[in-house]
Amino acid sequence: MSGTERIVIEGIGVVGGFGCGISDLSRALNGSVAPPGTLNVSTGSGPIEIPAFRADTSPLKEFVPARTLRRIDHFSRLALLGGNLALADAGLAETEHHRLGVIIASGYGASGATYAFLRSFINDGDICASPTYFANSVHNSAAAHISIQLGSMGPNLTVTHFHLSVPSALATARLWLAEERVQRVLFGAVDELSDLIGYIRYRTRDAAPDAPMTPLRTEMETSIPAEGAAFLLLTRESAARGGYCALDASTTGSLPISGHPIPEPGLLVLGADGCRESGRRYAAVAQNSRIACYTPLYGSMPAGPAFDVAAGALILKGGRVFPSPGDAFRDFPATVPVGGEPVGTDRISCLTLAGDGAYGLTTLGNFPGTTGECAKEERIAAGVSRMDPE
Amino acid sequence: MSVAPIPITGMGCICAAGRNLSDSMEALLRGERHPAPPVRFASDHPVPHPVFEAVDFEEPPDLLRTSAFALHAAREAVADAGLDRKILGSLRVGVCVGTTVGAVISEETFCRGYLAGGVPDMAPIHRILRSNPADVIARAFDLSGPRQTVVTACSSGTDAVGIAGSWIRAGLCDAAIAGGADELGRITYNGFISLMITDDSPCKPFDKHRKGLNLGEGAAMLVLASERVLRRRGTRARSFLLGYGSAGDAYHLTAPRPDGAGLRSAISEALATSGVSSASVAFVNAHGTGTPDNDRVESRVLHDMLPGIPFLSTKGYTGHTLGAAGAIEAVFTAACLEMGKIPANAGFETPDPEIGINPVMEATTVSGTVALSESLAFGGNNSVVALGKA
Amino acid sequence: MTTVEKLKEILVKDLNLEELTPGDIDENAPLFGEGLGLDSLDAVELVVIVQKHFGIDIQNMDEAKTAFQSIHALASYIEGRLSSG
């Protein structure tokens, strides 16, 4: 088929503060919100605990033997778990793993390993720098571990560009598929909340420690730092066996001085994550649009936009909008649909704003054969192996 | 499967061999190199390992050195292409930069302060947060097109160029500034020494007595443009990006796959997308780091896939510049095609019977119109670009 | 504690051999390939471990080859280096 084939989100794998897997994310989106955990941060006047969305990777042992995980750090474990969940969700057989494209987007990168590497020579001298921590601190280590575990020898990419990481990397995923370099791309956004990143977040924000995130209250700092992984199995239309929706576009660029880059966005899912400096910009761009915002369910991290895409995919598949958490959006100059309302459009746009007027926009569309339960039955009938989601 | 060639209208480069591309090429063709112990930083390794520093270059205090390199090379490339900020502002121009150090959110002084239980000054972190090299270039030239920072370790520069080519072919932008940048520092210095893959004497790519790599620093940028822009502006191409291939080894975090399967696949894809046969390749700019493993694996693949084709590593002149390497080597390759001449493989004296083939040992005339530049990275990434003479 | 016992403890901890205890490790079994199944990255980590815990530097991997045959071989190597000052 030609390069004008659409791209389907065939499987989704997520892990974060809300739990693990599509069913936990759906529960959170439907209103069953888990409160954040905590992260210990050393300050000049002793350790404190800050609210943080932590992700638990213990379910990874269902996919990867413990022995193999010996040298694999939290960042790569998050990635391995997200990736394996997405493949299982899509029901992709192991025999099809060998020629996947693998693309990872991360804002913080392998920060835990980076910090551990620095500690190794700060504490014990340059000659005691740890090669294992160094090897794992290279940002493409997660993509490497995934392709090694899957035996996949397709093209491999890692993108680190703060909040533009996800839309930027998704654009490349779409290009690889349009160029037919591969039939499927396993795309994942991963961020790890290491001690060091937690401390940097603590120093650069002045959030009220016990307040829940209210991103649509734009005059306040309410971001809660987070970690997690959100993976999508992206497949050319002709090879897809069901899924959630189409991934129709992903762009990055600079906002024009006047107007905004979103012609007919349909439903606009905002990546506003409680950071005061960006809140006002989101309000300006989203004015008069129909919006939703789900970041309070997974927290503030550069990988967040991938969770927004997952939420958008679930909305299109089910046909109904999830409630935007909290009710602190009365002053936000846009329409916020009530939970359960019909989505009322066949297009959802996920918007992320970064510094200097840069933006990322990912557009999802309805795709025949992926909405509703009939897609799931097709996959089961096809007899492909898949993990029982419940 | 072959794709449209993309014109390269401008190039810029800074490295230990020279502050700009023509100075660097002159040094290469003279066979001149200056490896030396690091000057800008100290370490407590008993034997200092030689590095290739761009000693005369000082970055401004508000920018990471990596980003300052990137901007310096971008300025040269943009001027070389006959462009300026005003013209770039009238086009949709993307920026795609490969880096390793430029994407790390960490800094030694800050970490030391944090580890000591103090309250370290946030200035180094703020500098990192505003120094993403792609953002720095986009700001400097007021670019509105797609942005991406590629962090595929030692293949980042090659990948950035290949990806930017895809953007232009897909119509995502009219032109792009693409390349790579990286700086020398204690983190990578300690890291590579800890892996025991560095040489404590000047590196000897492909030589029987090679012991490892020497690190380097610098940047290179290419201005890629669509044919339409070229015609509209009446400018000429200096070279063409004919094709690009990349594939993973799925083998090990730091060691290359012994059978070179990923590299073979990447070379095949680069040739197929260029629509050229292996026999018509004039020369290969090899990755050639000087490590026992890399040179052994790479030369085996070159012997099998490109028999009799002259090859050389330019890392004997620049050191291994990590995220910048693929871009620096791409501009060297294009410049060599223009000049019809390739430099000698610096550092090579004694043939290695295990390798069985020798790189070029003196500056050599070449008359073909196509050349390859290849990069092999940690995590098993293999990337190759094919460049064509204008 | 003997050097062998000390090494077993250090290896379990520093190489993150979570599912093993020092008692599980056969000091005469190969460290690389079979036996403990360590690889080239573990080998360079082991060089740093030896430096950090015993103050002994190993200059290159040829030197390490014989020393790294087994924990017993490594212990002998370390003791030999320590006693020669």
What does the model show?
The complex is a heterotrimer of chains A (about 400), B (about 400) and C (about 80). Chain A is α/β, with parallel strands linked by helices and about 400 residues long. Helix content of chain A is about 30%, strand content about 20%. In chain A, helix 2 crosses helix 5 and helix 3 runs antiparallel to helix 4. Chain A is globular and about 60 Å long. Chain B has about 400 residues and is an alpha/beta fold. Chain B has a single domain, classed as 3-Layer(aba) Sandwich (Peroxisomal Thiolase, Chain A, domain 1). In chain B, the strands form 3 sheets. In chain B, strands 4-3-5-7-1-8-14-13-9-10 form a 10-stranded mixed sheet, sandwiched between helices. A two-stranded parallel ribbon of chain B has the order 2-6. Chain B is globular, with a radius of gyration of 20 Å. Chain C is mostly helical and about 80 residues long. Chain C has a single domain, classed as Non-ribosomal Peptide Synthetase Peptidyl Carrier Protein, Chain A. In chain C, about 55% of the residues lie in helices and about 0% in strands. In chain C, helix 1 packs across helix 4. Classes of the chains: A alpha/beta (about 400), B alpha/beta (about 400), C mainly alpha (about 80). Chains in contact: A-B, A-C, B-C. Chains A and B meet through helix 3, helix 4, helix 5, strand 6 and helix 6 of A and helix 4, helix 6, strand 4, helix 7 and helix 8 of B.
CATH topology of chain A: Peroxisomal Thiolase, Chain A, domain 1
CATH class of chain A: Alpha Beta
Give the number of helices of chain C.
4
CATH topology of chain C: Non-ribosomal Peptide Synthetase Peptidyl Carrier Protein, Chain A
Q: What overall geometry of chain A do the principal axes of the alpha carbons give?
A: globular
Q: Which residue ranges of chain C are poorly predicted, with pLDDT under 50 across at least 5 consecutive positions?
A: none
User: What does the main sheet of chain C amount to?
Assistant: none
CATH architecture of chain C: Orthogonal Bundle
Radius of gyration of chain A: 20 Å
- Average pLDDT of chain C, rounded to a whole number, is 91
Spatial separation of the terminal alpha carbons of chain C: 21 Å
Order of helices and strands of chain C: HHHH
Strand content of chain A: 15-25%
Shape of chain C: globular
**Protein chain pair with the most extensive contact, residues per chain:** A-B, 71 and 73 residues
For the residues shown, what is the average pLDDT of chain A? 89
Question: CATH superfamily assignment of chain A?
Answer: Thiolase/Chalcone synthase
**What count of structural domains of chain A?**
1
Tell me roughly what share of residues is in helical segments of chain A. 25-40%
Q: How would you spell out the order of helices and strands of chain A?
A: EEHEEHEHHHEHEHEEEHEHHEEH
The helix tally of chain A amounts to 11
